[in-house]
UniProtKB/TrEMBL annotation:
SUPFAM superfamilies: CBS-domain pair, MgtE membrane domain-like
SMART domains noted in UniProt: CBS (SM00116)
Bilayer topology term: Multi-pass membrane protein
Record-stated family: Belongs to the SLC41A transporter family.
Protein name per the record: Magnesium transporter MgtE
Molecular-function GO terms, alphabetical: monoatomic cation transmembrane transporter activity
Species: Halomonas elongata
Lineage: Bacteria, Pseudomonadati, Pseudomonadota, Gammaproteobacteria, Oceanospirillales
Spans through the membrane: 85-103, 109-131, 159-178, 184-211, 223-246
Length: 249
């Protein structure tokens, strides 16, 4: 008689039960109490419902939207407003940091107006790289593919990948920098691109682990949040390099 049967307890989270069904290709998982007495089963169909629900919730969190009680076409308008407004208002204030950073470097911008042309490109690239990294980590943590124990290994891999991405993008944009503002501006843009993409990718990778460490849902490390943080940081990185390089040139 087989005694070591794959099972779940009454306290097992539904997401973990769904993972058991997927991992072992089961049609059902028995549920037992503390005395290992059978109290019910979770079927394959039940597990699929859980997976769909959790995936939808993660997608909503990934775009800074609260969990909806019903489908988007049926949820009340006021509820839809409430689920979206909180994060949007918070991110508005976060974006003010970018404006403050730009104001701080007014003299640098006035001395080389061509710098403004590349600002959306740089912070957009950093935000995209960070959102990609955050999405990969959040999904990996949700499926159990990665955990806090893997942080060191993942950090090393992300450093290599992000550095390569930043270098590739810097080489692509440097010729435009030469045409728009000369070699000095091209150098500023190239160095800033590498730094911002590297910073954004590492932030996007680390933020889900940091949130998980403090007991928060890693999915809260949404693309809008990561992008807002990188926007403000990218402004400081870009114009700091511009001030340093152009003033010494």
């Amino acid at each position: 008689m087989i005694r070591d049967v794959i099972h779940a307890t009454v306290d097992t989270p539904q997401e973990e039960v769904a993972r058991l069904v997927a991992r072992y290709d089961l049609l059902a998982v028995p549920v037992v109490d503390e005395e290992r007495r059978l109290v019910g089963i979770v079927t394959h169909d039940d597990a699929l419902d859980v997976v769909e629900s959790e995936a939808t919730e993660d997608i909503h969190k990934g775009m800074s939207i609260g969990q909806l009680e019903d489908g988007v076409s049926r949820v009340p308008l006021l509820s839809l407003y409430r689920k979206r407004v909180t994060w949007l208002v918070l991110l508005v204030f976060g974006n003010l940091l970018s404006g403050a950073g730009i104001a701080h470097f007014e003299e640098t911008i006035a001395a080389q107006v061509a710098l403004v042309f590349f600002l959306p490109l740089l912070i957009g690239s950093g935000g995209n790289a960070g959102a990609q990294a955050a999405t990969l980590m959040v999904r990996g943590m949700a499926t159990g593919d990665v955990g806090v124990r893997d942080w060191g290994k993942l950090l090393g891999r992300e450093l290599l990948v992000a550095g390569s991405l930043g270098l590739t993008m810097a080489l692509a944009v440097a010729p435009i920098g030469v045409m728009r503002g000369g070699e000095a501006v091209a150098l500023v843009v190239a160095v800033s691109m590498i730094s911002i993409v590297l910073f954004g990718s590492l932030l996007g990778m680390c933020l889900p682990f940091l949130l998980d460490r403090f007991g928060w849902d890693p999915a809260t490390a949404s693309a809008p949040l990561v992008t807002t943080l990188i926007d403000a940081s990218g402004v400081l990185i870009y114009f700091s390099f511009a001030t340093l390089i152009l003033s010494s040139g």
